[in-house]
Amino acid sequence: MKGNIEERACRLALYIIENRATVRAAARQFGISKSTVHKDLSERLPSFNRPLYLQVKGVLDENKAERHIRGGIATRRKYKGI
C-alpha cells in the first residue's frame, strides 16, 4: 500500500473507525507494519484532517484502555488450549 501517504492515513482511519479495529488488525489488513499505522494516525493525519484524527483517536484510546482485558483473554486461551 505505497503511494499517497495522506490517502493511506485516511483509509486506515476509516477502517479503524468503521470496524473498531486495533492497530494490529489494521496493519494486517493493509499489509504494513504497526509502526507505520501508528505514525500515519498519530503524526501525519492530524496535520491534514483534524476531525478524522479526533474520531480515530477515540477508538485508539478505547482500545488502549481495554488491551489488558484482551491480553488476559488471550493468556487464558493459551493455557486452556482453546
Question: Summed up, what is this model?
Answer:
The chain has 82 residues and is mainly α. The protein contains 4 helices and no strands. It has one domain.
Based on helices, strands and strand pairing, what is the structural class?
A: mainly alpha
> Could you give the distance between the termini?
34 Å
Shape type:
elongated
Estimate the strand proportion. under 5%
Outline the low-pLDDT stretches.
none
The radius of gyration over CA amounts to 14 Å
Describe the protein's architecture and organization:
The protein is an all-alpha fold. The protein has one domain (5-80). It has 4 helices and no strands. The protein has helices spanning 5-19, 23-30, 34-48, 50-80. Helix 1 packs across helix 3 and helix 1 (5-19) crosses helix 4. It starts with a helix and ends with a helix. The mean pLDDT is 92.
Please tag this protein with its features.
82 residues; mainly alpha; 4 helices; 0% strand; elongated
SSE topology sketch:
Elements: H1 5-19, H2 23-30, H3 34-48, H4 50-80
